[in-house]
C-alpha cells in the first residue's frame, strides 16, 4: 500500500488540502485530528478535567465508542453512535484535542486504528506525528505549514462563514497556544520528520496549495 504522511500545525489547511489531494490521486483520506477531536469531545461531555491525564484516561475505559466511517466518500466521525463531525470543528474542540493528544493512553487508544487503516488502504493521513510516529515508513512525508497570522485569518473566515461569533485576535491567540502545546508536549510532539518535504502556504491560496501538495506527492512517490 502507498501511504502519504502530512503533518503540520493547526490551521495549516491539512484536512482540506489532504482531502482534495486524496480524491485526485484515488486514495482514501484519513483525518487523524478528527479522531483526537472526537475523544476531546467525549472527555468534555463527561466533565473530566482536561488537565488531568488520569481523568482523561478514565473516560477511555468507560462506555465510549469512537468510529471513523466513510459515507459517500466523505469521512464522518461517530461518538457512541452519534455523528459528531460538525460538533468537533469548534475552537473548544480544537483545544480539547490538543490536551487529550498529549495523554499516552489516548495515543495508544487511537494508534492501532490508524495503523490498521494505513495497512489496508492507499491513503493520505494527516496529523501532528504521522511521519515521525504513526507512519515512519510512509513513501512520502510532507510538513505543511503557514505563518500563525495566515492560519488564524483562514480559521477566522471559516468560523465566521459558519455563523459563529469570534474575534480574529482570539483565534490568533488560540492558534499560538495550540502551536506551543503541540510542539512542547512530552509525547509525540509536533515536529518535522528529518525526511519530510517542507511546504509553506503562507503566501498562496487554497487551489495553489492543493496543486503544490499533489505535485509534491507525484514527484516523490
Protein architecture, described:
- It contains 9 helices and 8 strands.
- It is of the alpha/beta class.
- The strands form 2 sheets. Strands 2-6-1-7-8 form a 5-stranded parallel sheet, sandwiched between helices. The protein has a 3-stranded antiparallel sheet with strand order 3-4-5.
- It starts with a strand and ends with a helix.
- The model has no long low-confidence stretch (mean pLDDT 92).
Structural class: alpha/beta
Oligomer: single chain
Low-confidence parts, pLDDT < 50 over ≥5 residues?
A: none
Would you tell me the overall average pLDDT? 92
* Count, helices: 9
The SSE string, one letter per element, is EHEHHEEEHHEHEHHEH
State the total count of DSSP E strands: 8
What topology, given as strand order, has the largest sheet? Answer: 2-6-1-7-8
Beta-strand content: 15-25%
Output the radius of gyration: 16 Å
Tertiary shape: globular
Largest sheet: 5 strands, parallel
Distance between the termini: 12 Å
Helix content: 40-55%
